[in-house]
Every structure is written in structure tokens, then in C-alpha cells.
Amino acid sequence: MEEEEEEARGLLADGPDDAGRDAPAVPGALPALCDPRRLAHRLLVLLLMCFLGFAIFAMIIRLPFRLRLNGWGTIIFSCFVCIGQVIFALGGIFNAFWLMEFGRFVFGIGGESLAVAQNTYAVSWFKGKELNLVFGLQLSMARIGSTVNMNLMGWLYSKVEASLGSAGHTTLGVTLMIGGITCILSLICALALAYLDQRAERILHKEQGKTGEVIKLTDVKDFSLPLWLIFIICVFYYVAVFPFIGLGKVFFIEKFGFSSQAASAINSVVYVISAPMSPIFGLMVDKTGKNIIWVLCAVVTTLASHMLLAFTLWNPWIAMSLLGLSYSLLACALWPMVAFVVPEHQLGTAYGFMQSIQNLGLAIISILAGMILDTRGYLFLEVFFIACVSLSLLAVVLLYLVNRARGGNLNYSARQREEMKLSHAE
User: What's the CA gap between 57 and 315, in Å, rounded?
Assistant: First the structure.
């Protein structure tokens, strides 16, 4: 208790710093790395949030399910991830497919909820000028995790196979168990984030925990029309990206005559581009504002990408590069908008609901995409994806009109947001 009071006195000695930027050092104040208001400390939190996403997406499965979100909840969900991965690996070792399915179910409970916790942590610590950049960095680390998973697990399997002297379910299970080390990294990050978040709330007397309160279905009735439009944009956009990537390799082989290796390279270019470009786009959106305009640009570019793939024989590297750029831009501009239209105590509910319906849409559309591909072929499949992106585009236009009619702040410039922040502070 004495240590907490000493930390608080140190912060008070440093004077108020509402902007959360690096302030001049004052004798008796906490070091910058230990001061929750200082940039150095918040960068430490950002690093932990990014590695939380990296670890999860390295082994991720999507599942529409949500539980309580707070500091302890984040730790519990990380434990679900670790336990689920162990069960999944044991299913491989004992050649029990049902056990592997159960393991992925347990993993999904924790993994998807951690993604929501990551978003609420981001808003809690970085709501303001850096929020779009933070979402971009989180997406970048998640995509790096996915890329590591796609490229490392095959190599690891071959090494385990050489060590054990045979292939098969045992080798697969051992490989999955070793790969689960990333889940331990996620748990460590969750523990550190929970401690730092509670410490900041205690020292600065902030009620940050409210951003991760219990998710209540009754909050859905209070969601505004702009938020529902954001949900629609999210669902119909992502269903034209992830299912396509899942089916893309064979598409590039059959339509363009690429080898299996070349098709895999083209198919993965979306993630390769998003890793470095997401932080850049996030910084750009932070500097300029105009979130709806950037979302509009991203959706239009994605529509052009699918039309090129469907109706031309141009080198698919062009279309997939456009898709990678637009995918990165949309994530940086779309997801932070939730924080602009939802009260802080409902952020966990809003982000949880957004990811739930996104995953539900992905599950349904993936099934439909497979049926269309089996019965009609790739041209009809691309037309279907174009229709989905067109619906997303219509929702963006409606969001722009509704936001303008209501005098909303979704399309404010960075300068307008800063002026609004200062007026609220007064």
C-alpha cells in the first residue's frame, strides 16, 4: 500500500499531463517507463498488446462466442487458449479426431474473446490521436503471426518427423504441442497487461476497467444506426476476403496456370503486404482523420480487385496487391470508428458483437462459397464476392449520409477531433 501511495505522489509531483505525452522529468516523479501517462509506458503496453495478437493468430481459429472481458477475463481466456491447444495436440498424439475438435472449440472460446480484449485495451490506452495507428500495428502483428504459422509449421513437422523417424498422427501431435509455445507467450502478455491496466487505474484513479465490463445482450438495443452500418460494412467486406483467400490457391492454378508454389505465393501476398502497410495506413488515418472516406477508398479498391480477377487475365499479382493494400487500409479506418459512436462502458459489448457477427458471416459465406464453387465454378464465385463487396460499398455510402445528416464525428479531420477534445476538456 505504501508503494502505491509513493507512486501516486510521484505522478502528482510530475503535474497533470492530459495529453499523455512525454513530459519533462521532475524530481521525485516516476521514471517514464513506469508512469502510466507517459509515452514510454504506453509503448510498453502496446508491445504487449501486439504480441498478444501475434501469439493468438499464430494458432488462431475463428468461433462466434463471447464471455466476460476484464483484466481477469483476459487471463482466463489466455488459459483457455493454452488448454485448448494442449487438448488439440493430445488429439493428434492419440489419433482422436473428436478430441482435436474439442480442443479447437476450447481454443476458440479464448482466442476470439482475447481479440475483443485486445481492441478494448487499445481504446482504453490510446483513444485519441494514435488509435488508428495502434489498430494498424495490432493487425500487422496478427498477420505476421499468421504468416509465421503458414511457413513455420510445415518445417517444424519435418524436423519432428526426422527426429521421431516416422510420420503420422504422433508426429502431428508433437508438432502442435511445440507450436503451442506461442500460446504461453499470449498468457504471459495477458498477465502483464492485466497488471499494468489495473495499476494505471489504481494510480491515476481512472475507471478504465469499464471498457471491459460484462457483455450484456440488452446493450444491443441501444446500438445506433451508424454502428449497425459499421457492422454491415465489416461483415460484407471480410466475407469477400478471407473465404477467397481460402479458395484462392486452386483458382490461380486453374485460371492462370500457375504452379502450386507460385499460386501459394500470390495467395499469401495479401498478408505479406498488410504486415508493413497496416501501421503506415494507421498513421496516415491518424494524421488526416476522415475515417469514412478511407473506408470508402478501401472498399472501392477491393471491388476493383475482384473485378480484375473475375473479368480479366491480367497478372493476378496486380489484383492481389490491391487487395492487400485495401484490406490493410480498411482495418485501420473501420475498427476505430466503433469507439467514436459507442459509450465507453459498451465498448466490450460492441467489439464482441462486431466480431461475433463477422465470424458468423464468415462461417455462412464460406459454406455458400464452397457450394457455388462446386456447382457453378470460379467465375460465379467471383461474381458472388463482387456482390458482397457492393453491399459493403452501399453501407459505406449510407454511413456517410447518416453521419453527415446527424452531425456525427466519424468523418472529422484530425484537427476537428483535436478541437472537439479540447472543448470537452474545458
Answer: 30
